[in-house]
Design brief:
single chain; alpha/beta; five-stranded parallel β-sheet; four-stranded antiparallel β-sheet; 8 helices
């Protein structure tokens, strides 16, 4: 499934740029250049996440957020200005924003937040803490993994990477998102940590099941569970 992101931003150049960036990372996007159009498009059942500029003309950020929340159950990332952040972020979160990002921001930061919010909003695959993909089985509680019924011994970080991929098997997760959510540190493009862990993870899964193919590299975007 390709996630559908609605971007409500009155700056057309900024909106189009963010749409193109997210599309290049595997997302479907819809642009709304005014609050009124954005509210109409937010009703769509196919919308998986909304990026909402809270500095739109003619109505306050609080009013806009309330109206979006009344029309859609999709998670919302609110875009706030540097002047607004100290006084308003707590208020916006209380009004229903799932996350806030302070403008100006790097598109890569927005991508990481989009991925993390969607990951948090994703429904658990199984209430028992069991995740499955093909013949791969991950037990969250016991921290064990099997491939084709054969045990796969993973490090804690390898287990977390695999768990995040299996939570949303149809979605591409960027290196930034994986690194920052697991290591709780800022990702830099020179860092080869994720590459190394993915390589080790693939080697261990292949050893357990030589015929298996579990992790796909989506060049320029990140990783997902292999189809």
């Amino acid at each position: 499934m390709i996630n559908h992101v609605l971007i409500i931003e009155d700056n057309k150049e900024m909106n189009d740029s963010l749409c193109s960036f997210l599309q290049s990372h595997g997302y479907r996007t819809t642009a709304a250049y005014s609050g009124l159009v954005g509210l109409e498009k937010a009703r769509g059942r196919s919308i998986d996440l909304i990026v909402l500029d809270l500095m739109l003309p003619y109505r306050s950020g609080s009013e806009m957020l309330r109206e979006v929340r009344n029309r859609s159950e999709a998670p919302v990332i609110a875009v706030v200005s540097e002047e607004m952040q100290h006084a308003s972020i707590a208020e916006f979160l209380q009004l229903g924003a799932d996350d806030c990002i302070v403008a100006p921001f790097d598109p890569g930061e927005l991508l990481t937040r989009v991925e993390n919010v969607l990951l948090t909003a994703a429904k658990p695959v199984a209430p028992s803490g069991l995740l499955t993909w093909k013949d791969l089985v991950l037990h969250r509680e016991s921290k064990t993994v099997t491939a084709a019924s054969r045990p796969v011994v993973l490090t804690a970080k390898e287990f977390e990477i695999l768990e995040r991929l299996m939570q949303t098997p149809d979605r591409v997760l960027s290196k930034e998102s994986l690194f920052e959510s697991i290591w709780n540190d800022k990702y830099t493009y020179e860092d080869k940590t994720i590459n190394t862990h993915i390589s080790n993870l693939r080697t261990k899964l292949k050893k357990a099941n030589p015929a298996g193919d579990y992790i796909e590299t989506v060049w320029g975007a990140g990783y997902k569970c292999a189809d």
